[in-house]
Amino acid sequence: MTVSSRVQFARTATDLVQTDPSVALVYAEISGQFFGDVERRHPDRVVNVGIREQLLVNVGAGMALTGMRPIVHTFGSFLVERAFEQVKLGFGHQDVGGVLVGSGGSFDIAGGGRTHQAPGDVALLDTLPGVSIHAPGTAQEVDAVLRRSVAGSGVHYVRVVEQANGQSFPYAPGRFHVVRRGAGATVVALGPVLDDVLAATEGLDATVLYASTVRPFDRRGLREVLRSSEGSSPEVVLVEPWLAGTSAHVVADALRDVPHRLLALGVGRGELRRYGTAADHIRAHGLDAAGIRRSLDEFLAPLGSCA
Amino acid sequence: MSLMTGDEKHSAAATSTLDVLRVLYERVLDVSPETAGDDRRDRFLLSKGHGPMAYYAVLCSRGFFPEEWLTGWASYDSPLGYHPDRNLVPGVEIASGSLGHGLPLAVGTALGLRAQGIGARVVVLVGDAELDEGSNHEAVELAAALGLDALTVVVVDNRSSSYAVPGRIEKRFATEGWHAVTVDGRDHDVLEKALSHREIGRPNVVVAVVAVVEEKR
Q1: Contact A59 B104 (CB under 8 A)
Q2: Cα A137 to the chain's mean position, in Å?
């Protein structure tokens, strides 16, 4: 039976705590409904800090200072935005590792309003050196990336959201999966936008690349696709379900000597000041299949045409 | 300490901590250059990273790094900065400078040691004005709730906080369930007794009062 990404996160995290005595789980009330059993069994390694997000992050970092591998979790807005200096100093500047798991993303909690929407999380973490950023597209990908990140080293951010793809891909950090090959534009789908990207590019002669690991970014893979594509069409389209343009600088750097045009789609900067559902917000930011197709058609229209 | 010049802005902050640091390293903490990498060592976290001259001087005198490092401190090639960095200086447990991080990190450190069955102590030094930062109060509440008796906070109180209320620091910790005492921060024997005490089942705070100064950060 398939479960939501968030339930999968809780199951995998629970399993990791139970099987590896060096793993700790630190959370701040959020998702506590999933952790009661494992907290009772391992009260020293499963710690609810209450509604204290600055403390949440530094408690995880302090446990890492003693050699443990912490999983640190709350909503992305509070984990990354509210406690950003703790991430920067507690983990980054101390140079200790841990796995930060933020749920909610850009619009899971659309009805909660701006306070619970964090489209800037990836861009913020991208300002810190060496942070691996993952946006798994399915529950299965959540399981794989969490296990690999916990078993690995360094700081990882895992963005767990309800939006999901129909197909899971093997964990391959820093490598694009080529989902579709075409002779035209190259569309890069990051995280759980792949289904909408595939629907939007239906009938277009486009290449579609997919990655759930956003940092490190597969610069070489992108260059290779652009170079090998027949007729070497220089159009690149980024689709990422967080702040638009977050990955544009990486594409610009990867293609510094490759003439290209870039369209960077994502969540707009303006505050919608709307509630509703995730689907409403995905549509409002032009990230549903129809919206992506509209942007693609406009971007790919022959230059000089005045439609 | 006279070898380190250039941070006179923080010299009062540095000398305010000297007695506490000497007592900790000479009489209380079970840590030395030989055991600095040992999982079971006592941890000292300097949260108030400002004015670290006294800290560097004490670490140097205990043999953690050579005296030559002290001259030229805070220059581009020196490992010793105006705020200490655990990745650059042997014996330094955390990189500090931004206030309000050391105590939360100490809570995590105490939890990490407890989860691994290690009985070592975690002593964290904060300034009275540093307690302005709300992040400390998140840590004060949780440490008591979880009964972190390996943890000792030493508040070096040089009355530098704006809006200070006399006696508030000890009372606040005590209200949260800490074992709390206020002592003369210049008297080595009194400091030794207070800092050596380890209350069972409760975290400890020692408010070490030193001379009143005018300095603000």
Answers
A1: yes
A2: 8
Q: Which residue of A lies nearest to B40 if distances are taken between CA atoms?
A: A66
Fold adopted by A5-160: Rossmann fold (3.40.50)
pLDDT at A185 over 70: yes
Q: Tell me the CATH number at B29.
A: 3.40.50.970
Distance CA A166, CA B98 (A): 45
Indicate if the pLDDT at residue B11 is higher than 80. no
- Work out the percent of chain A whose per-residue pLDDT is above 70: 96
Provide the whole-model pTM: 0.96
List the single range of A140-149, A294-303, B201-210 with lowest mean pLDDT.
A294-303
Contact yes or no for A55 and B134 at CB 8 A: no
ipTM of the modeled complex: 0.95
In CATH terms, are A5-160 and A177-300 the same topology?
Answer: yes
Say if residues B21 and B92 touch (Cβ distance below 8 Å): no
**Are B112 and A47 inside 8 Å of each other by CB?**
no
CA-CA distance, B85 to B75, in Å (whole number)?
14
Q: What is the pLDDT of residue A25?
A: 98
* Tokens at A192, concatenated: 């759980």
Q: Do B108 and A52 touch (CB under 8 A)?
A: no
Which residues on A lie below 8 Å from B142 (Cβ)? 49-50, 52, 55, 59
CATH number for A177-300 (one of 3.40.50.920, 3.50.50.60, 3.30.420.10, 3.40.720.10): it is: 3.40.50.920
